[in-house]
Write a structure and sequence with these properties.
The complex is a heterotrimer of chains A (about 210), B (about 140) and C (about 600). Chain A is mainly alpha-helical and about 210 residues long. Helix content of chain A is about 35%, strand content about 5%. Chain C is of the alpha+beta class. Helix content of chain C is about 40%, strand content about 15%. In chain C, the strands form five sheets. Chain C has a five-stranded mixed β-sheet. In chain C, strands 13, 14, 15 and 16 form a four-stranded antiparallel β-sheet that branches. In chain C, strands 8-9-10 form a three-stranded antiparallel β-sheet. In chain C, helix 8 packs antiparallel against helix 9 and helix 15 runs parallel beside helix 19. Chain C starts with 17 loop residues before the first helix and ends with a helix. Classes of the chains: A mainly alpha (about 210), B mainly alpha (about 140), C alpha+beta (about 600). Chains in contact: A-B, A-C, B-C. The interface between A and C is large, with 45 and 61 residues.
């Protein structure tokens, strides 16, 4: 979140009868940088591109439906044309015959654009080390977030989306090409495995396979 | 007050409005061109056709039904425009105006019935018409 | 076991011995081959195969009216071919007789120097794509084929993937990279050239518009491309272009051990989950001569029916969504989530559990599974009634789908349509009833039929099939037999752990089976099942080693997509969308 100077507006208003003028002004003003505001807007309204290759697309579609509801994250406006989309989720295996098509679609996506690589096949070829499959979409596209799984649970895709939102908020994207240097500076994101391993190693209560 | 001054007194809000509209349009067109990053990739100016290069040009001889629909729309739309002109002055023209408008509408309505019966409004393909005939026959 | 029969010998079993009958009636010599699955297999010379196929289709009683599959085997490094004629590449035609409930396999021996045979596109229209695929994969030339353009592999590909000298793994080939020049070349190769398909660019008074529908299109359900020739809004002709989803599953079968190939079968029909394991595992068990207990059969049937419901639900939701009804798919996905919860509790996985094993299933059913199942079964019928009312009784849906994409039973059989698409025309043929497998003859269920064979009937048939699947699952829940969940056979993989630590023999077996995998005895087998989309089968050729020699996956959707141009000529683009939505295909099922 950008650095906001605001409190809980309603509660403070009731309690702040005898507070100073400065305090009440602070409570009702939000200050931030335009860059942060734009990044906040971009991250909370990512429009995915209706692009699905394989089995992972079914789990992506499941993430759009009512149980998992991608709409909570502002990403439910799925667009069929790349001109109106922000994020392209490469969901499924990247086939050699499909590679030029994906490249063309990526080129037709307008700035700002992000790529989520969903599933093992898009990450690295998955279990398909075979002549007709590209071993990972990062062989020809820049990927922002990798979501592992075969296929990843819809919750995993949602987590990937939230990570992408964190990335977008910390990005350094120029507001206008006339001011300042061009090019996007992306933050370096640590591996989630390293971040979560200590907590996962502490888990001792595992479900028993013989009971539901 | 002279006629010119009265004119200006009536007209200046409208003129201001026009200037504001013009300014807003200029702003809306120039500001996006200045904002955001600039990255030109190769395929961005080419048509989107599901990821594959398209075939053929966009200038080709279209089938007649599209043109017919456009023409019918224009004709009947202009009819409505004339009726707007009458509708504004309906009280002043009274019963005489009403009958004249009625004759106008009836003539055009007859034309519509003629087109309908002729099949010019039928948007079905020949196979669909055949299927419909077979379905009715069964 | 092969026999070269002379024409004067009388048939021992009368008309039931098909090979003997063929030998008597057909004027040219045939060589019989015995296979483990009992499907009559004959070898015929390349110059006479057309006559034999025509004979089987038109003159034999009962007639083998459907071309089930055309495939080939690269025999050059195969060792166990006793009694079979010398052949570098064997072309195999598999025919299905719907009236006689039987298959027949006709094999042609081809040499590498003379890889040529006449096309059968004039006998069966669906031979078109099968022959193109054989040409892509093996380089066999089909003389007289209208357009032997690459189907499954990219047009710029060099080599024929299923030949034994072609590398299998991507890591054995050059690492993939795509630069601007390659991008341009590939896109140019994909550009649609109407003249190549016999299309005119202009009609009498108008020019035709050629539009790409796909591979990235919301309505084509996956990476599928249809190039349509449009006269305004009317579809004059269409060409279906596949191969964008080719994952080389058949080549992968030659690389993976029998046991480790299981996850690849899951991903063939990615909505079918564990149902895809069934034909593969049944085939391997037949080769290895493993009998599974009735508990295993019932568990397999129950999970297969669960996945059939899953698949039909998704079909139904996307069918309604494509025609414009946005709501049903959300309700349906909520039901699917409930079913996924049950499947996850039993198998551990949602979409791709890979839970069947050679000789049984991975684990026994957990305690409490029947409670979850009963809850689901109690909830479903009312939801199905809702969907019936919401979708199938809707006036707009009816107007858009009744009478659209209609075909007759004869056309369906000619094009190789199986499953719901065939039953929607009113033809009563369900493999589970006609040639039961895995204990399906113990279950009491009906086979829903349509009347017109249009889009509406296809959707209706599948909704009714969900009800029948619920009936089957109810019977599984009520009468689940007790027994072991794995067969007690040396080739069961993974072997049961109980006896392992007690004597050295079983320890060695366990070790070898867990590392190398079982060595399944040599032979050929093909056991089709009634998958959710149609007839699905794995034709497995074993050479006695730990990997399969040839895995041929015959999928239903491959045949169904061929019929799209025929169904949509003369219709509007909106009708074409409805037709594609009603076929119920999955691209992984088409391209494998």
């Amino acid at each position: 979140m950008p650095q906001l100077k605001s409190g809980a507006y309603g509660a403070n208003l009731i309690a702040s009868h005898d507070e100073s003028f400065t305090q009440s002004v602070e409570d009702s003003l939000v200050l931030g940088k335009v860059k942060d505001l734009v990044a906040w807007g971009q991250s909370n309204s990512l429009w995915p591109f209706n692009f699905g290759l394989s089995c992972c697309y079914v789990e992506m579609a499941t993430a759009f439906t009512s149980r998992h509801d991608l709409g909570r994250f502002g990403a439910e406006v799925i667009r069929a044309t790349p001109r109106q989309a922000d994020v392209m989720v490469i969901s499924g295996t990247v086939f050699r015959k499909m590679a030029p098509v994906i490249q063309r679609l990526y080129e037709q996506l307008l700035e700002p654009k992000w790529i989520i690589s969903m599933g093992s096949c898009a990450n690295s070829g998955g279990l398909y080390d075979i002549y007709s499959v590209v071993q990972g979409v990062d062989k020809f596209l820049p990927v922002d977030v990798y979501v592992p799984g075969c296929p990843p649970r819809p919750e995993a895709l949602l987590q990937g989306l939230m990570l992408l939102q964190d990335t977008i908020r910390e990005e350094n994207r120029p507001l206008s090409w006339v001011l300042g240097p061009n090019g996007v500076e992306k933050p370096s994101m640590p591996s989630q495995r390293d971040r979560h391993t200590p907590e996962r190693m502490r888990m001792t209560n595992l479900p028993h396979p013989d009971r539901v | 007050m002279t006629y010119g001054e009265e004119l200006i007194r009536h007209i200046w809000p409208l003129a201001l409005f026009l200037v504001m509209v013009g300014g807003l349009i200029v702003l809306m067109l120039t500001l996006p061109a200045l904002l955001g990053g600039k990255r030109v990739s190769r395929a961005v100016n080419e048509p989107y056709e599901c990821g594959i290069v398209p075939v053929g040009s966009t200038h080709f001889r279209m089938p007649i039904p599209f043109y017919l629909f456009a023409i019918f729309f224009v004709i009947f739309d202009l009819e409505v425009v004339f009726l707007f002109a009458w509708a504004v002055a309906v009280k002043e023209t009274g019963w005489l105006g009403f009958t004249e408008a009625l004759i106008f509408i009836l003539i055009l309505f007859a034309a519509l019935i003629y087109l309908w019966r002729l099949g010019a409004l039928d948007w079905r393909t020949s196979r669909q018409k055949l299927d419909l005939r077979n379905l009715d026959a069964r | 076991m092969t026999r070269l029969l002379t024409q004067s010998k009388a048939c021992p079993m009368g008309d039931a011995d098909l090979v003997c009958l063929l030998q008597q009636q057909f004027p040219h010599p045939l060589i019989e081959q015995g296979t483990v699955d009992g499907i009559p297999t004959v070898w015929v010379d390349a110059s006479h195969v057309g006559a034999l196929l025509r004979y089987c289709k038109h003159e034999l009683q009962p007639s083998y009216a459907m071309l089930y599959d055309i495939t080939a085997i690269d025999e050059r490094v195969r060792s166990h071919r006793e009694g079979q004629p010398a052949s570098d590449f064997t072309l195999i035609y598999q025919l299905l007789s719907l009236t006689g409930n039987a298959f027949v396999r006709i094999k042609v021996a081809l040499m590498d120097s003379h890889l040529r045979v006449d096309t059968q596109c004039d006998v069966w229209p669906n031979a078109n794509w099968y022959e193109r695929e054989c040409h892509d994969m093996f380089g066999i030339d089909f003389v007289g084929h209208p357009n032997l353009y690459p189907l499954i592999i990219p047009p710029t590909w060099k080599g024929h993937p299923l030949r034994k000298e072609h590398p299998a793994r991507a890591t054995e080939m050059e690492p993939f990279s795509i630069d601007e020049q390659m991008q341009d070349e590939e896109q140019e190769a994909l550009r649609f050239v109407p003249e190549q398909w016999g299309m005119q660019r202009e009609g009498k008074n108008t020019d035709y518009m050629f539009l790409n529908m796909g591979p990235n299109h919301p309505s084509v359900h996956g990476v599928f491309r249809v190039a349509v020739q449009l006269n305004g809004e009317e579809v004059v002709d269409a060409v279906a272009d596949i191969g964008y989803h080719h994952r080389g599953a058949e080549k992968m079968g030659e690389r993976q051990a029998w046991h480790t190939y299981m996850p690849y079968t899951d991903r063939i029909d990615y909505l079918g989950g564990v149902m895809n394991n069934l034909p593969y595992v049944m085939g391997v068990e037949k080769l290895a001569d493993i009998q599974v207990s009735s508990r295993v059969e019932t568990i397999r049937v129950m999970l297969s029916e669960c996945f059939r419901i899953q698949s039909h639900f998704l079909f139904f939701g996307t069918f309604a969504q494509d025609i414009g009804q946005m709501s049903p798919i959300f309700y349906i996905f909520a039901d699917r989530e409930m079913l996924f919860g049950i499947i996850e509790a039993i198998t551990g996985g949602r979409m791709h559990p890979s839970w069947f094993r050679i000789g049984g299933v991975a684990q026994d059913l957990p305690q409490g599974w029947d409670v979850m199942m009963r809850e689901f079964l109690a909830r479903m019928p009312k939801r199905l009634d809702e969907y019936q009312k919401m979708v199938l009784d809707n006036r707009i849906i009816k107007q858009r789908t009744v009478g659209v994409g209609r075909y007759t039973s004869e056309q369906a059989i000619d094009w190789g349509i199986t499953g719901g698409g065939l039953r929607a025309t009113g033809y009563d043929w369900d493999m589970r009833k006609r040639m039961p497998y895995s204990g399906y003859d113990n279950f009491d269920f009906d086979v829903p039929l349509g009347t017109n064979g249009d889009c509406y009937d296809r959707a209706m048939v599948r909704l009714q099939e969900i009800r029948q699947s619920l009936r089957i699952i109810q019977q599984c829940v009520d009468h689940m037999p007790e027994g072991p969940y794995k067969a007690d056979h040396p080739l069961t993989t993974p072997p049961p752990k109980e006896r392992t630590m007690k004597d050295i023999e079983t320890l060695i077996h366990h070790f070898v089976h867990s590392s190398w995998g079982p060595a399944i005895p040599a032979g050929e087998v093909c056991l089709p099942i009634e998958a959710s989309k149609g007839l699905n089968s794995y034709y497995l050729v074993s050479d006695g080693s730990t990997t399969s020699y040839r895995t041929r996956i015959r999928t239903p959707s491959f045949a169904h997509l061929q019929m799209i141009p025929t169904m949509s000529r003369g219709m509007m683009v909106a009708d074409m969308i409805a037709i594609i939505a009603s076929i119920d295909f999955v691209m992984a099922d088409v391209d494998r």
